[in-house]
């Protein structure tokens, strides 16, 4: 009889500890444990002679190095992850029997990997793209993976088209350009010829595709899933993650500059926030539809190009996830983690969404090639926290040492164990949905409306968001070389809005479509980021200070810090800067090592003794922040500089002339951006 492990014997963190090793203060050895006396010189026949074959140390070291890379993910190659925990607000037993969704006092360990989709592993992070938002819940009933994106709909309706979509968006094969960008002919040719993509393209051209931070974006399960309760009753469900800091974006010019200045911008932000104790938080939301109401909507709930408008089907917030621990080793954890939408627990089941159905095949298949064999579930990051037993054996990299001769079912020699568990005892049983039909390769008529929700999205945007969408289309199509593809896309998006299509046509030299938009009959305010939570916490402010700064700067900085704002001093060199009253400030960045785009706001202090070069550098920061609609503050000499440059008295620019400077600057920072500013 197999030894019994108590369920949840170890927390995920304790489990991972077993595999960690600290090499400091240890003797250097080979992988066989042989202590080495020398590690800098290969074994040679004479000091100037050839290297010898018998140098087993050289060969082991070099062989290992030669094999250090594994194939990158075909999509979502560029990613970053963190550990955390999930806490439930109230029991969800009404909807599901999943154990981790029953008891609010249980904390479920999680591991979340965020990613871009199209770029290679080394590509920049602020590119225009959807972001992956994959969560592994280590529950006492096994791992549950919610493998979502930051956009609630997808480009295609059937998984069989995924290779085509990805081939079209990846760099073009003849010259492998462009990297991590959809602004090229093959992507837009795909869009125009696969018009089911219209809705997601609208999201991709919106600010959602250039998030300010991984901590400030929503997550969506995309597909319709099923929750099943202990009585066997099922409900359709869509999953959401809502960031506690609100949903915020960069502007496109800024995103492009950051790609060069700091290609690691998003991972650095996530890593530093966790190191600083500013733990990213997301609330889990669910939308529920009764099974009886499956056909009550003007869209098919199985169609992954459709969302459920929150105004019609409210999002109930059911719990909170907090990311509170960085990984110890990116390869071992972030790279080797293997997600799969098919990793479910009792009480969570699938729908017949044809995109989801295809994903249920693809994810295991991809891990086999990526992680080199069928034993990837044994890697520390992928191990469940509950015991697992079955008759699977052997294969590359097998770590478990299964004892005894029996590895088959049914048997008598091991009393027919490991044994299946009935549903009443926690065994997974698939929801017994009734299905009937002919074998067909076709798509349901109910999937044929590609434009209504794309229009709903457009109609729900603020004027600024609409302008950004028009600019994004104009940029992307402006990079497309084929006139025919450009025109096809303009004609296609006339089905969404003629205002949009006309302006894009104008920008790219295409023929504008005829006609006018129909009057707006429906919008969904929840889709606009304008409605989002606005908080100052964790916002980074570049404080530009020179020697001989005056006034109560340290006091202002303290007030900002009390609001969770992070002022960072920027100056000419890394020498401390000194105030006229003898106070000193440590400088974190120089004009050489940082840039306005890397901050949420700029605060110009300067000083009367600062030279012309300093003033110019400070104004470059302020000017760039101004153009990116960012909050700008100025006190002391900084006020004069901004005035002389004509940057004062605009929305979101707060100067020391106001008596409420600190409060107003904090308010301006909370607003994120000041779109009503006149930027030429
Ligand atoms: Fe994925 N997707 N996908 N996807 N996906 C992968 O699996 C696939 C889709 C998503 O951080 C791959 O392990 C197909 C939708 C995320 O490790 C691969 C289809 C959504 C991640 C794969 C889709 C996603 C992946 C590549 C169409 C949002 C990164 C590496 C049917 C709901 C997970 C891997 C991580 C990764 C296949 C569509 C999200 C090849 C066939 C829709 C977040 O298996």
TrEMBL record:
Residues 1-25, 510-532 are annotated as: Disordered. Residues 521-532 have a biased composition (Polar residues). The lineage of its organism: Bacteria, Bacillati, Bacillota, Bacilli, Bacillales. SMART domains: Catalase (SM01060). PROSITE patterns: CATALASE_1, CATALASE_2, CATALASE_3. This is Catalase. Its EC number is 1.11.1.6. Residues 29-417 form the Catalase core domain. It is an enzyme of class 1 (oxidoreductase). Pfam families: Catalase, Catalase-rel, Catalase_C. GO terms for molecular function: catalase activity; heme binding; metal ion binding. Heme binds at residues 73, 113, 162, 359, 363, 370.
